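Model the whole thing, not chain by chain.
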Amino acid sequence: MSALEQARAHYEAGEFGKARAAALEALAGAPDDVELLSVAGRAGVETGADDAVEQLGRVTQLQPDSADAWHDLGEGLLADGRDGEAADAFRKALELDPDDEVALTHLGHAEFAAGSEGGVAHLEQAAERGGGMSTAAISLVEMYRAMGQHEDALAAAQKVLDAEPSDVVAALDVAELSLETGRLDEALAAFERIREMEDLPEHEVYALHGMIQVELRRDNADRARELAKEAAQVDGYGRTAGVLAHFEPPEDGEPPSREDVDAALTESMKEHRRLHAEDRRLLAEDLIG
Amino acid sequence: MTAEWRRCPACEAFVYHKRLKRNLGVCPECNHHFRLRIRERLGQLLDEGSYEELSGDLEPEDALSFVDSKPYPARIAAAQKQAGAKSGALYGTGTIEGNPLVVAGIDFGFIGGSMGGAVGESITRAAELALERRTPLLVIAASGGARMQEGCVSLMQMAKTSQAIGRLNEEGILYMSLLTDPTYGGVSASFATLGDVLIAEPDAHIGFAGPTVIEQTIREKLPEGFQTAGFLMDHGMLDLVEPRENLRRSIRNLLQLHALAEAARQADDGALADKLPGTEGEAPVSDPDSLAQRAPWDVVQLARNLERPHTLDYVGFVFDDFLELHGDRAFREDPAIVSGVAQLGDLAVVLIGHQKGKTTGEMMERNFGMPEPDGYRKGMRLMRYAARFGMPIVTLVDTAGAYPGLGAEERGQSNAIAESIMLMSRLPVPAITIVTGEGGSGGALALAAADRVLMLENSYYSVISPEGCATILFKDAAAAPRAAAALRITAPDLLRLGVMDAVVPEPGEGAHTDHAAAAANVKTALVESLRELLPLSGDELLERRYERFRKFGTPGQQPVLPPIEEST
């Protein structure tokens, strides 16, 4: 096995330190070997080597017409937090290979971070190509929400949910955004669906809290009270106590106001989202949170 | 998904996942610490390739045949598939910079890190292995609490794990608990908060009951930052809050300091003195007539000099390493007292001292070195720590007195001082006290019931401040200089009275003129004292210490000073 093959084998096996060591050793005798430089640089990005970007940059000098070389350099720069330079590298990669969906996704994020409106456009293109559960599609929902474009966010969330019907975060997006945009029937249906999807009883409470919010918005206090009672029955942690007290005031004190209840339900929804966002990331890789 | 971007839940920035991973899972924009899977955590903490897993056969059992909306076994299967692990916890062995340890951890991604039988079994087996090998234990906690689907079997894990930790405690095996976000309920109320050292990451949420439940129970809005690591630190519940980038280093430091302690415990008493460092300072003085005679009131002014070195100044000069440990585990972190484990030559010692502060802000934060009960309780916690691990204790005393405040009285200032005196007087390890500035009454003695009690040449030690004595007995606050003389609070008189064993010389016009030289003399005094004490057994130390304090006021044993005119 040649040194290059050995380095590549380590890289493919996720043994980045060994891959880099093998590539660097071979580079001593062939300092401008593009393939070795590429493996050394890409492995260096994984291990946090200071000179990884330098090696990947050298590859682009030696092979300026390689889309992969510019793509790899872009990822190295992103890993260093040099988003502006990374965006330039991805633009070059896309000039050479307009079908590079990942480069498009990276470019969109880098531009969005820099406050450029072009970022969203690039992510829309990437989402078109990558489908509903792509990184671009998921990020688009959050970006539209951050920009206050709730209609666009709802449409994007619906696409994600259509692509992955078991994704609770996408279902939550649809439910919350339906509520936000005044589509109360859709919101209720979405929360009911989440209730069916939820695996753990303690999570069912969150869906019921969403349904209570919808009924309160409809001024249907009786139904909201019924739901609050239902939630209290499965709520092992007493999170519904305050909501129920709003409808059935305690003898020894003031009941929580409608504002208090709205705030508690909103907080409950945030908590629910946070827990599932962690699950989604957990499925994607080791980092969660 | 091929191109991963994460949205930070704190600052909402999108972060490229390789950048995040390179930054140990900490948001580079706002320092938010993302939650980690347990294996990722071990990868960050342990030496590469050192982890050997021993928990492979453990998985949850359905002891109750529990069914809610679906049978518990179905939930277990789903969790196993999602988490890619058989159980929500693991344990094994590994090293950190070559220092061996047993490690166990909970994966929050497995049914919310809840503790059922398998989780408790992992923690317990890890503790038992640590005991068998006399190797330090690190447990990494992240949990919502007990696992309801296992009913009282889950509840009993709190007792099972706690008693296993109790055995480590009895045998003096270091147990470090790393509390990560979130740690709640039955886990926080058992093994997770029983560590000899409790470490948490910034902003980790730690508590018994969740904030929503508390708010609904007390019908009050909870304060900002409630149950965060910082909140717990302020309330004395944690030793350290460490950013992720520092965790490995802090744990390594602890392991190294405890390796020194363990080596000392295994060594012959006669060989312990060989572990002491060389010294270059002036030797302590035990002949009162060879000391410079200064007016007592002048000594009081020198002892109070704001430029005088304080405990943390001496730490930098005297010790090779120091890891400050915080908290009384009861109410509050009191910065008027600092404490921790320090390295002196090849010995690990526990250091406890008053800390006054330098700037106005720091002096106020540290309450001018006047501790509340929480400070003394922190000190006592560290005294017990020293006894548990066989570490000598060094205390540096510099306080005008214990703080005379409302809260201090409410929380039992008298009792805290009394218990500290009693505890220190009965510790089976060498204890050395040096009064470095003011030795104000019971507030000083709480840290001074030692085998050897020394004072710096220009410090004082007194039952009451000269001003207080002047007001009460002389009915004239301006008579403080006269009171200072009458109380016999300076080094020569205290040597003659037997209150002091020796006096540490000060350079030039006082310690404030040359911190390094003063510290060198302090180091020499400590080393010489330890050289005498280290060969003694615990029983011998206790007997001699008893006799040391027994003689005061005993007819025929108490030296009597001549009238002042003759003395000075």
